[in-house]
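Hi V.,

You were right to ask for the full record rather than a summary. Here it is.
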Amino acid sequence: MSIQSGSVAAVDHTKFSSGWTKLLWPVWAIFLIAGIAGVFMRITHGHNLAGYGSYVPWGLWIGVYFVGVGISGGAFILGTLGYLFGVQGFSRNSDLRISIILSVSGLLPAFLGVWLDLGRMDRMMNILIHPSFTSMMAFNAWMYNIFLIIAALTWFLSFRDSSPWLKPLLILGMFFSILFPSQSGVFFEAVRTNEFWRSPLLSMLFFVSAITLGGASLLFVRSAMLKKSATSEDLSALDSALNILRATTLIGLLVYVVFEFAEFSITFWNPGAHSPNVEFLLFGDYRIVFWGIHLGLGVVVPFLMLSTGNTRLWVIASLLSIIGFGAARLCILIPGQVVGQIPGIQEAFQDPRLSYVYHITTMEYLVVLLMIAVGMTVFYVGSLLNKFFESSSGAR
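Predicted structure:
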């Protein structure tokens, strides 16, 4: 089978997707069991087994939360744009439903991470019941929940042949999806006492990463879930979608690195500037996370893989780029907290939880595995519902 524009060699997509499906089941089981153990540790020991404290209150779970939000917003934006403009590989309602389900499966685990990060998890609903909309967190909570309602409505309407409400709701949902990453950048930029987070490029970095995460995630799931009974039309649509998503991910990686270089170059080219946060990130304890995981494993390697004509390497590259953007979120989140804003405060009060040092603990890693397993579960259940209603209604 040929790929559109002759950019890659022939690939047996059905055999390839079947191999990924078989591999994902044991991965899901391991992640789920390990994750449940992590949640048990969190419930029985509270935050005592976590690496964060009073001075560094946000750690790995919040970083993964931003990744989930990025996947959610990016997948919905790309799926909606492709559907509205009738792009091959995205123009069918079944293609749209994949993007919607992926968007929801990225957002719900993000909620789980934030919930487990709370000191009082039983007060989670207070932000919805008694909101203060001058708070960024309250605005976030309401925005995400409104989006989930819109996503559910668009998914339901996608099974109807000619609903006049589908496209307007998709545009409204895309508006909220654009707000997701942009508002995440504003969330940090609003902390005026933190020089590291006060950057006009931060919102753009989050937005570009969301589009790239959405492209990479769709690239993986569209490759992994093709049916064995796929027709030539299905294969042609898949070829078109994979090429578009590959190009989106490639361009997104490149643009993100350019913005990141612009961000850090200002610090180093200004002779009067001195940023201990940037030095911690680039040359201190977080240099391996930045240079090795984020740029090396998450940008350079995926970029090289996506530049080839091997679709199997594209799928691996999509997973690596997601990991790389997880590291990128930590490269923004952690360096902004490890430098005290008030000189001498660390020496004034002595306590194990009063420290500007943060190391990820086993419990935190285990909980992240549960977040991934929950996302996989939501996507699988959503895919089953898609198949059930498609067979019942004859929808495409």
